[in-house]
Write a structure and sequence with these properties.
The chain has 149 residues and is of the alpha/beta class. It is 28% helix and 24% strand. The strands form 2 sheets. The protein has a 5-stranded mixed β-sheet with strand order 3-5-4-6-7. A two-stranded antiparallel sheet has the order 1-2.
């Protein structure tokens, strides 16, 4: 992942509005905002077997969950759309990536039999599911449709 997104620990996120670097923890209540300009920050992080509930289930925002693996070419094709979604829906959506090879318990818990698999979860409950890669525009439309319902 690039420097403009967060990983499972507190990582620096570059504000798309003012360019300031901000620390954003993977698990926190509320919505991350830039310390300088106070705009919403893109929230793209990772989770695994050890912190899934803290990062995803207990999230205060709806979560776009990307179940992926590094060897999966459709997953890699989906990546730019995932990053774009984190920026587009900053303040309204938390984006979390789970590597199914490194988090087999989460993959089993969510029945991730095919990847890429995208879920939108709110309060730990599934609001939408998409299996297979989508282009960035189609991904954005899918998210908008699920969030509107």
């Amino acid at each position: 992942m690039s420097g403009s997104v967060a990983s499972a620990r507190d990582d620096a996120v570059t504000c798309p509005h003012c360019g300031a670097r901000n620390r954003v923890p993977a698990a926190k209540a509320g919505v991350p905002r830039c310390g300088r300009c106070h705009n919403h920050l893109p929230w793209l992080t990772t989770a695994g077997d050890d912190n899934f509930d803290d990062v995803v289930t207990n999230a205060t925002l709806p979560v776009l969950l990307d179940m992926w693996a590094p060897w999966c070419m459709p997953c890699r094709i989906l990546e730019p759309g995932i990053v774009r979604a984190a920026k587009t829906f900053a303040g309204d959506l938390k984006v979390v990536k789970v590597n199914v090879d490194e988090a087999p318990k989460v993959a089993d818990r969510l029945a991730a039999r095919s990847i890429p698999m995208l879920l939108i979860l709110q309060d730990g409950k599934e609001r939408g599911k998409q299996v297979g890669a989508l282009g960035p525009d189609a991904l954005q439309k899918w998210i908008e449709g699920v969030m509107a319902s």
